[in-house]
Amino acid sequence: MIIDIITVLPELMVSPLSHSILQRAKDKQLLEINLIDLREFGIGRHRQVDDYAFGGGAGMVMMAEPLVNCIESLQKKANYDEIIYFSPDGRKFDQKCANRLSLQGRLLLICGHYKGIDQRVRDHWVTMEISIGDYVLSGGELAAAVLVDAVGRLIPGVLNDSCSALTDSFQDDMLAPPVYTRPEDFRGHKVPDVLLSGHEAKIEEWRYEQSMRITRNKRPDLLRDED
Description:
Number of strands: 9
Largest sheet: 5 strands, parallel
Distance between the termini: 38 Å
CATH topology of the largest domain: Alpha/beta knot
CATH superfamily of the largest domain: SPOUT methyltransferase, trefoil knot domain
Mean pLDDT: 93
CATH architecture of the largest domain: 3-Layer(aba) Sandwich
Radius of gyration: 22 Å
CATH class of the largest domain: Alpha Beta
Structural class: alpha/beta
Order of helices and strands: EHHEEEHEHEHEHEEH
Strand content: 15-25%
């Protein structure tokens, strides 16, 4: 998979995308991440990428011309399955969305700033809008890092255990069950006996029951379709 990211702060993206699972994915050549500095497409000697909003009001707006010139320059070299813009009014990013995007070949992410980007870019060039939550960030870079991490780990071969991602929270619309490791007894707090039994069927039953209990208590909204 290839993910291209348009940003005015490429240096902000370097660290989140250069460690742990994502770095291993790049080392295995399963994931390629390219940072494109929007200011290279800026207007005039000062590489301007933003301007005042028509109609007045506080805050600046990212201009259409630099963004579209950047997008179209990239499109001359590649075909994108999705051109994604991060916005509070986009569709809420969830595990189902991450699963679907992980099956794509190439994505283009647009990181907004200020009061957002010119609406004409959203109307005519963006194919998908995503929100990572009901709050406002200073820019789209951290949202892009979240998406890349969530999607990148799902690419086959990235995780050492191919089944690991399939047992994560939200994969089956439930939260994950509790997990334990050594020692069996820590300051009088013991690991549940069933996990030490070696009985796979009983262990899976216990994990399902715990997932259901935790989901009902903490995120009942995930079970809204339950009969």
